[in-house]
Amino acid sequence: MTHIRRNAAKLTFGLVFTLLVSISGNLYAQAPNAKNGEALFKANCTSCHKMDAKVVGPALMNAAERWGDDKKLHAWIYNNVEFQKTGDTYATNLVKEYNGAAMSVFAGVLKPAEVDDVIQYIKEWKPVVVVNDKPTPGGGGETDNTLLFGILTLILAVITFVLLQVNSNLKKLSDDKEGMPAIEPVSFWKNKSYIAFGAVILFIVGGYYLAQGAIGLGRSQKYQPSQPIFYSHKVHAGINQINCQYCHIGVYQGKQATIPSVNICMNCHMGINEYKGKEKLYTAEGTEVNGTNEIQKLYKYAGYTVGQPWDASKATPISWVRIHNLPDHVYFNHAQHVVAGKVQCQTCHGEITKMDEVYQFAPLSMGWCVNCHRNTQVQFKDNGFYSIYEKFHDKIKNGTMDSVITVEKIGGTECQKCHY
Amino acid sequence: MEQNKHWQSFGELNNSEAYQKAAKDEFREELPFEGNEEGGFFKTSTPRRDFLKYLGFSTAAAALAAGCEIPVKKAIPFANKPEDIVPGIANWYATTYVQDGDAISILAKVRDGRPIKIEGNESSPITGGGTSARVQASVLDLYDTARLRHPKYNNNEITLEAADKAIGAALAGLGGAPVVLLTSTVNSPSTLQVISQFLAKYPGSRHVQYDAVSYSGMLLANEASYGKKAIPSYRFDNAKAIVSIGADFLGTWLSPVEFARQYSVGKKIDEKNPSMSKHIHFETVASLTGSNADERFLHRPSETGAVVTALLGAIKGQGVTGIADEKLKVGIAKAAAALNENKGAALVVCGSNDVNVQIVVNAINEALQAGGKTIDWSSTLNYKQGIDADFAKLVDDLNAGTVGALLVSGANPVYTWFDSAKVVSGIKKAKLTVSFSGRLDETAKEVQYIIPDSHFLESWGDAEPKTGYFSLIQPTIHPLFKTRQWQDSLLKWSGATTDYLAALKTYWATKLGGEAGWDKALQDGVINPATEPAAADAAFKAGVETAAIAAIAGAKKGGEYEVVLYQKVGIGAGQGASNPWLQELPDPITKATWDNYVIVSPALALKLLGIDLRNNGQSDDYEVHPAKKQVTVTVNGKKVTLPALIIPGTQKDTIGIALGYGRNVELGKAAVTDDGEPVGKTVYPFASLNGGSVQFFAEDVKLELAPDMFDVAQTQTHSTYNTDQGNRTEVMKELTLAEFKKDPSDILDEREHELKEYGGVANFERDGTIYPVFDKPGVHWGMSVDLNSCVGCGACVVACISENNIPVVGKREVSRFHDMHWIRIDRYYSGNDIDNPSVVFQPLMCQHCDNAPCENVCPVNATNHSSEGTNQMIYNRCIGTRYCANNCPFKVRRFNWADYTGADSFPHNQVGHISEVTWGMNDDLTRMVLNPDVTVRSRGVIEKCSFCVQRTQEGKLKAKKESRPLKSGENNEWDVKSACQQACPTNAIVFGNANDSKSAITQTRASNHYRLFKSLEQLHVLPNVNYLAKVRNRDEEEGKKEA
Fold this sequence. Notes:
The structure holds 2 protein chains of 2 kinds. By secondary structure, chain A is mainly alpha-helical. Chain A is built from 17 helices and 3 strands. The longest helix of chain A has about 35 residues, at about 145-180. Chain B is of the alpha/beta class. Chain B has 4 domains: about 5-25 and about 735-1030, Alpha-Beta Plaits (2-Layer Sandwich); about 150-210 and about 385-455 and about 480-505, Rossmann fold, CATH 3.40.50; about 215-380, Dimethylsulfoxide Reductase, domain 2 (3-Layer(aba) Sandwich), CATH 3.40.228; about 560-715, Barwin-like endoglucanases (Beta Barrel). The longest helix of chain B is centred in the first third of the chain and has 21 residues, at about 45-65. Chain B is globular and about 85 Å long.
């Protein structure tokens, strides 16, 4: 909530500010939008730049002030190769400082107005003051009570047993008193009722676990194998905020999100050859990992020696261990969910930005898929495809139908949506 | 209107006992409880113990499976990802299917580096995106395990370098003896350049083009009549009257895909103003084209000359002379009248390879003023250019020892030349013999060196199927084996320093204005003339036909029986013999797979085989069992024994045998039976050289009944579907043009009448049932099949196999009714004339009934209905009760009786006899052809047409990603086309969203509402597939004629 409020405040400020600027300076046809700039920044820049730290490229906080002239900065971002030809001193020094490492040309990728948005975002960015966000003690912390219940159940069971025994002994006594013929006492382990009772309990408990086990066959939730290289999503996607799509290039296009090829890793790691992060890296078992060593492993696969030019054709592929496995008879398409459905990566993959080593977050079972399809809304109004559902639109308009259109309502739980 | 009787089998015509039984059962066998022949499971001696054994085994297996750890799977990305490849997304490359002169522009679908599907290139004005069965199947050849994997010298592996060195030395040491380059027709301009460069290096050398089934007679006739040794373009689309004398132009003649497309233009009906072209066909043995004709007349092959002469005379108003047969006489008079009526829009084509016959045909076309209208000399057809006499001379030269070196590419004369022994002895006399064959064909076996050529999907190149129309070839995959394009070999041996790719690029870059032009052309796949040239005439030399007519009059007369050697749609001249998909494709007419056979007429069957088809017992005996009587055919002392199939529409004294069978057993698994024998028998030796051209018939044939029987696997009577209420009129509707003009709403009225009690056509869905109507809120898929456009060529069948990973089951399984094709083309005879009935083809796939009977009976809900109107089949839920198949009125459900795909992980489960060729399809190499978006089905599950659900899902996703409505045919823009629709050369199949008022399917249904009908509509199964009734261009009303 606080985040939204803060962003909203920032947004309002940004809007007012840019409005003023645009009126006074009359420089811009359209007011640069910092929010739009933020999205563009995350999609295009985070692989090389951070605001408050040097990554592949310089830290961008106060970049506009350092350049002094927004026009120059704009020209640099838009097409730095062209701009270098002007012989600008700041640009020349910058290139020298970074050993001639090339920056991507954004002409054709970003529109000039979008570059302005990015610049606006850079100007407005302020370091986030870290609030103490440790969980407040005693705030409804849930502890595991299973053991307690187990012990209680056991005690009660023993008491029941003792009482039953007492009951039968008392009955025997009273029978003796009344002179009823004594029935030969049956020891409790030979008592048929006990045996039957035990068998039923055993059957129910055993059956439950057997069924659960059978359903769970082939599922591997929480699977967390160790990978050939200790790659931390926390460092990349979390701390450095690299957009998921920068590496998983297929995610917007098709079935597979795709694991990045070595050349994508090397886009950044040509420049970053040691791990200097403040956060220490730990494996799932708790062993500390030396990040720089892991980067060295990457160089081995890539066939790269620091300081030498890299020949991409010498690279060898990395055999990652596949974590998320679907059976062959299931069709799953990332683009369908991420582009058409606008589902967040985290919905299925968990808090990936906090994972050092990735584990399978979701059960990936059919029940899990179907439940989500039942509850999730499609982009019914926003996506033009759904305009063909004329009957639904009419019904929503005249109020005979709930405007919540879930995936299920448009046939998303039918068998052949995933099995063919 | 009284509908014609439609029948698929003789049993049906006679309504025999066996037919009635067959029509009742879905599966034609008793349930196969293997090992329990009598009484089934509970009658075994120890049912309880067996039960416990099974129980114990399954528990143990389950425990074992549970105890195993889940295997660790790897995900290995590229080391250096090429920019344009995204895993899981198909790339499409424009290229060209080429085989022995045939060239069809195609797009190859490449998934993760593997070409898996071929589709027509819609930018080609020749095909307009149509394909044929052979084009569709060609992708499987790429992954054939029988391909040659390295160069060979005397059957031993050698390296390319060693071969180059040795061949180079041998060529240099010929001592001036000429080198002969023998190829099938080459219409690639850059290759011709390479060839001339090579020939220039070796003076005195020559290039001989040889076609297995040649058009030599036609080429020479055109030279005589027009002074051009070429074949003009035909414009069937401009023709209002078409007469074909034995030319199977929809199936195998010259450019069938192009012609089928043009032909369908004249067959499509505008209901507001109905008109059609008139097609009269003269033939000897029932062919695909003859079966599509409005009227068909039969003659003996030796009479072809007489027929064309009589036709010429009749056109000139001299009456029909020289013809004895009365029916034929009437036919010629009719044809002449139809042609004369449409002068300037008439076309006569003839399949004869006799120069004189073709000269007379030229004279006929001249008399009809066809030049510049239906015959277009502005661009010539370059598919076949071989002259038989050239090859005959080469064979003589070889035997005389005057040829130094023989290099063979494409041609396979050891198999296809009638005097094979002479070719072999000639080859042995040449000092150096090299074959470029990609597989070990009959000729390659006889030569010293084999430098295998790459498959066309691995090659660079170009083709000029029609003068001025080019099509480019680009590789879609790196060569799988150590093969080299034969053009590269030629360049190397002619001392060139560049390779073929460089030569090709230079050739085109200079013509197209540099690299950019080349890149664009390569992307388009075709280079067309800027403006389509106007149809042109050629100067006709009058009078040449006089000598030809005289020569025809003196031709040899036929004996008691004659034989015609024809090509099948799938196998061709033998090129399809090693392709399992094509071998299992049922022949459009005989519906037989995996064999060639003797086609006999019903009359000859009675005389020779002693089978009276009008006798119930005898026709059942013939039809029910796959075993057929065999006939020994003797021509010039050469004998061949083959099983006989009785095919109506065949001249009574003529038999037909297909070419292309009896291949070398090393050619591939599909060319061999499980016993190691070749599939079928070759009949090329029956051909002969007559007047310089090869004659594919023999005038004098001796026929004898052979003692034993032989199984032929036919599919036609497997899936008989019918209703108890009556005959086929609920399944198939046809009428004549005259009737249609008189009463266009005939069929609609009939439907209204039938459904009157249940709300009529409009309210039938709601009023015909006690169940509620289910909404289809978004997309409602529908398909329409125009029976008037469908020619029955089978392209859709192979396209469906390729798209949907349909297994090949082999001959034995087909003959046990276990064929797996999701779409079948039912062949119906119509009318009571058993000797020459009319034919209708009806493609039948799952009808996706909105009230589907199969869905109600599934005990595990493995088949159910979607909100998009498709009938879904879920394999992993299916337990194989086959109730659904039993309850399907259309018999379109297929059951995996055995583990055809090798999907089963327990080898013991693979019981039963599975053909070698089926195992061959499960080879790791061959499996590369599988479509990764479609599940490979395991044993024991039902499967059927899914309306290409993987394509509909993909199309919808594309629209969603672009945030726009689905395009299904509006302005000819398509997000989704089903595989069968895409493959169809005549656009007979239309598929799309029936909820969209602008979609092609809605438009088609609206503009054809008179002809529209649904098969078995009165059952209230509500099919989502509709048909458009067949209309024949006949004047007389059908009922009257038959009465």
